[in-house]
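Researcher: I'd like a structural prediction for the single chain below. Treat it as a standalone chain; there are no partners to consider.
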Amino acid sequence: MARAKVLGRLNWQVATVADVRVESVSAATLVLEVDDWPGHRAGQHVDLRLTAEDGYTAQRSYSIASAATDDRLELTIDHLPDGEVSTYLTQVVEVGDQLEIRGPLGGWFVWDVDDPRPVLLIGGGSGLVPLMAMVRTRLHNPDAAPFHLVYSTRSPHDSLFATELVDSTGPDLSVATIYTRTAPPNSARPPSRITAADLDVPGFLAADAPAVFVCGSNGFVEAAANLLLALGHSAANIKTERFGPTGGQP
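Model: Treating it as a single chain, here is the predicted structure.
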């Protein structure tokens, strides 16, 4: 049985688009129905393959945004100006369309509900997506460890899951949004890149030995990891996931 599950993850499966949601000015969420979906762990991803009529194929990896307990699979995809796959997925795909996926994949950048450590999540731009799967999974498990999310985004128009994050906050799940280019008028923090002060949060300090997950562009992850190490966090407690070309923070 275990071998059959592993093989299922390696084989391509047909996913039917059940819904398409606009998440920001450049991102959309595809809600997929997959027969015999084996389930996933919060933080995992899938491969997605498109095949044109002439046989040309393009394949990309996308983080899973849905909670580990959800029956439907959600992929939140940011449109890249020159991205052939992201353009199709965010601007062309409609409900009822079928896509090919393979997964779930990845077993290192994951959070499990039975981990007793407090959890510090740090996401830049669309790097929030796998962290959102962790947040949603935690919401289904109210007795799990406390969470604090630091989300760095260019502007309110670029923010992902903004309303949902506001509605999800509580005593054991807090969110701090960092705007790097344009902040809302009522923001007490002027636009700037993430700083050590943003990560120096009571209950999630180095002395508390939290499990730390950082996801974003190469430049963002490098900057955040260096800040964490300077604050005294152990490298063994920090897990990172990077995407896209080398570049600056969002």
